[in-house]
Amino acid sequence: MKKIVSMLMSMSVLFGCASHQDFESRSGSSQEITSIPQIDWHEVMVPSSFSMHFSKQSQLLENSDISSPVAGFSFEVTEPRVTIEISGIVRELKVFAPNLALYDQDFNLLRKYTSEHFDYDRDDFVKGNVLFGDVELNLPLNITRVYGVIYTTDNDLSNTTELIHPAKAFAIAKRNDPPAIDDPIAKHVNVGEVSVVIKRDSIFTGLLEKPTKSASAPEIPQEYSEPGIIADSVISDVQPETKTFYYQAIETAVAENNIPKALGLLDEAKALGIEGVQEVFVKAINKK
Predict the structure, then answer these.
(1) Which pLDDT score, from 0 to 100, does residue 1 have?
(2) Which GO terms describe its cellular component (predicted)?
(3) Region at 257 (left for phi over 0; alpha for psi -120 to 50; beta for the rest)
């Protein structure tokens, strides 16, 4: 069994995502465009993880379907089954409400997903303050390339998202009654950050099931037991860089008043057997 686990862990490295990339949605050719092919495309791999940053310098697409700042990514289809995760990041009570349109190699529309597909889950303390949704694709064999366009709409810009107050989230996580205070409201804007993760199905899809984790947390190899058997401790040695990551991530989350994210990271670190994280969390709270 240990040999199988070792092989699966090695294969997870081969199928894992590359380092996270940041792309500025800026006009390399023309800022104001009228057609999808004119978008400045960012070529990415599958799998991959990257962020699109929208600003006043972003390309502006104006046509009958889309009237918005846009950011585009493109990838070659090497296998038909692909999952795309989209997260609109809330910062300073502002968020870019994402919509996603997918096109084939000839720029024919494949599918379109409105902002309703990417919503806020006030009960998900791990993801934190994001508008999240995922898209599962099973592409026909004649699709050789996919172009993805992220944009927003006038209707989105007229709406807001009600977030859970950090104090309420903290109380709920501790199984206490939440305080009677107003929840903060995030305004929808046409600038901000949208995070994208593209995953592919490996030969192990369906065999292994991985726990939910924060999008900012590092990938940790895990050992899996035979069906029906609960594994003992799955992490034997915690690497120093992993310990440092969680210490710093928890302190940063608390400093940014993102208590749900800090609690999610705290739970992850405890599950991995990292010592001292409770003290780090408490000290960060007291410092605030």
Answers:
(1) 41
(2) periplasmic space
(3) left
Token pair 């996919």 in the structure block, residue:
146
pLDDT at 104: 96
How is domain 2-200 classified at the CATH fold level?
Jelly Rolls (2.60.120)
Q: Are 253 and 261 in contact (CB under 8 A)?
A: yes
Contact 238, 272 (CB under 8 A): yes
Three-state secondary structure readout of 23-85: EECCCCCCCEECCHHHCCEEECCCCEEEEEEECCCCEEEECCCCEEEEEEEEEECCCCEEEEE
pLDDT tens digit sequence for 65-110: 999 999 999 999 988 899 999 999 999 999 999 999 999 999 999 9
* Rounded Cα–Cα distance for residues 220 and 82 (Å): 22
- In the chain, the N- to C-terminal Cα span, in Å, equals 47
Could you give the C-alpha distances from 248 to 15, 20, 138, 280, 285, in angstroms and in order?
A: 27, 18, 39, 9, 13
Low-confidence stretches of the chain (pLDDT < 50) are 1-18, 203-236
Q: Are 90 and 194 in contact (CB under 8 A)?
A: no
Domain ranges across the chain: 2-200, 209-288
Instruction: Please list the helix, strand and coil fractions of the chain in percent, rounded to the nearest 5, in that order.
Output: 25, 30, 45
| Helix (H) / strand (E) containing 287 | helix 277-287
Which pLDDT belongs to residue 197? 94
Q: Which of 209, 243, 221, 238 is nearest to 16 (CA)?
A: 221
Question: What local confidence, expressed as pLDDT, does residue 112 receive?
Answer: 95
How many CA atoms are closer than 13 Å to the CA of 81, on its beta-carbon side?
Answer: 5
Handedness of CA 244, 245, 246, 250 (dihedral sign): positive
Return the residue matching tokens 């984790």: 213
Question: Which of these, 271, 270, 252, lies nearest to 262 by C-alpha position?
Answer: 252
